[in-house]
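Quick question, first post here. What does this chain look like in 3D?
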Amino acid sequence: MTFIKQIPNLFTLGNLYCGFLSISYAGSSQYKNAAILILIGMMLDSMDGRLARMLHVESPLGKELDSLADIVTFGVAPSLLIYYTLFLNSGWIGLAICGLFPLFGAYRLARFNICSKEDSMEHFIGVPITAAGGILAILTLFSGFIPSIVTIVIFTALCYLMVSSIKIPSFKKVPLPRYGTIVTIFLGALLTIINLESYKKFPTFLYVATPLYLIYVTYRFIKIRESR
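> Answer (accepted):
Ran it through. Tokens below.
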């Protein structure tokens, strides 16, 4: 029973490790790999909470661990990715600008943690840091087709939207993890249609995480159909 309680936390730690690896890849100028690891972190993040509810092992520890992982994978990692790809030659000004993203993201997570469970099930206040970090990762993947000024504008807008009071619909009551499913489809299409040689060496995690997540989504779909 003790191991079962830790299963969701293992997925959360996997999310955190993806953030660490993303930062490492970004520091080595492997920006596409760094962006993909953030997206893989999104998949893992979409699974830990649902697994905790499925196994009836939700706990304050898991909630706090999830927030710590999110600030690394979807706060620090995307901001460094943007810094290395857009602001590297801007000196301390670039560092100061990029540093705003994890600061606002941390505030957003702290505000989410103190809101009531009922409110968090119905809507989010401000854009979740997971979605914001994922958007920056996708922008980096397609940086060759997107003008830098567009990315900068979106980056700035996301900083504000995370700490805004705008209500965003929550998908927690939706049977399938929709944003995670979208990421999975995106990654699958990416593997199919692009020339892998142009992206050099993809992390092995990409080929492991995507099919595992598809299996998870299929299992969830079958279980929901059986319960009806």
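The radius of gyration is 17 Å.
The CA atoms of residues 70 and 177 lie 17 Å apart.
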